[in-house]
Write the structure tokens for this entry.
Amino acid sequence: SQQGEEDPQALSIQEGENATMNCSYKTSINNLQWYRQNSGRGLVHLILIRSNEREKHSGRLRVTLDTSKKSSSLLITASRAADTASYFCATDDSGYSTLTFGKGTMLLVSP
Amino acid sequence: DAMVIQNPRYQVTQFGKPVTLSCSQTLNHNVMYWYQQKSSQAPKLLFHYYDKDFNNEADTPDNFQSRRPNTSFCFLDIRSPGLGDAAMYLCATSRGGLGTSVMDTQYFGPGTRLTVL
């Protein structure tokens, strides 16, 4: 199955700045999801965007999806130190009932 | 609160000594998953149950097995742990549903960190 690939691998910013993470994938999808993982913990679902959607918002999060380029971006606005975590995109292969996770972007937000 | 619970949070075992990790859920979800996650890597799916139907990933070693005695519980058995099996093991659930081919949200437990001595 395919795997999403995030970039950058690591991102370091100051509180109040915006953070943008990108994800690319290889084959057609039904939906794409973003998850957050705090160090040593389980993953927490952030947002799901379906293949027929182009943009979705949830609080300080904005996700875009470009199926023609097979890419997605996650924007976190006005970042906080508590946003420090790893962020993973996950895709479902059409016809499969499982998710494949990318390698993740490690975000560090300094006070 | 409905949730996914994993026990223990930390497990230490000896090389070759069988170990069982447990997961329970109060979400009444149809699907349960086990992932292995090594340091700074993506979670890797080992297998999943859709209700009672077991689905093994092609590259999951035979050393790993799973049991789901009822809707709420799922176990990961590692028959002969090796040093390379040291990792975080994550359990997750999703609602699933008849005729559903579109993946919905997965809900993760806090994970069990396995150390092999």
